[in-house]
Amino acid sequence: MEREETWSYSRYGLWKQCPKKYKFAVIDGLPQPRLTEGPAFRGIGIHGMFEKYLLGKTPELSAEFDYYTSFLDEMKGHKFMFPEIKLAFNREWEPCKWDADDRWFRCILDALILEEKTATIYDWKTGKEYPDHVNQREVYAVAVNAVYPDIQNIDCYHVYLDSKAITKSCFHKDQIAGIRESWESKVQMMFDDQWYPANPSWLCRYCHFRKDNGGPCEF
Length: 219
Known about the structure:
Mean pLDDT: 95
Number of helices: 6
Number of strands: 5
Low-confidence stretches: none
CATH topology: Lambda Exonuclease, Chain A
Oligomer: single chain
CATH class: Alpha Beta
Helix content: 25-40%
Structural class: alpha+beta
Order of helices and strands: HHHHEEEHEEH
């Protein structure tokens, strides 16, 4: 079995949720159905709409999200605003191409605004607010610091589009080294996993690999 040692926050979250599901999806590469409906499919569509609006490729948002028009218009006013920016790094946190052979960590920022001393990251969420989203904000801050090491402050927002809630984490560049070291340790635990135990929970009902769906899992 060939081990996959490229990670993203979503891959790490999958492993934390259920190591066995991570093994089936990432290590074994078992096929999963293409999304054609449901919350995840809806989220992909909304992300695409926001990206097109920020790039000026669509004149307006859908009526459901017209509330965010002025907010996005203000973002568009920044000289250095980048929607859906893809970042990839090797193990030394050096930026590399998305598909580079030595890629180690990858992420996609829904929007990034750069000013003289501050970087602002936005991540659109179409689901509920969860406490572990603060972890995602940490990872994004590490990534932006690796690309723009002279930036002093990194502000990271989660915007919950349905509930209109916003959460925020603020980081100073002096904090990043410690955060990065902590995440390297966490991710190494995932890479070192040899057993991938199942973690049965209520989430099993949504798992493609579950037993009653004809999948390989014992649950």
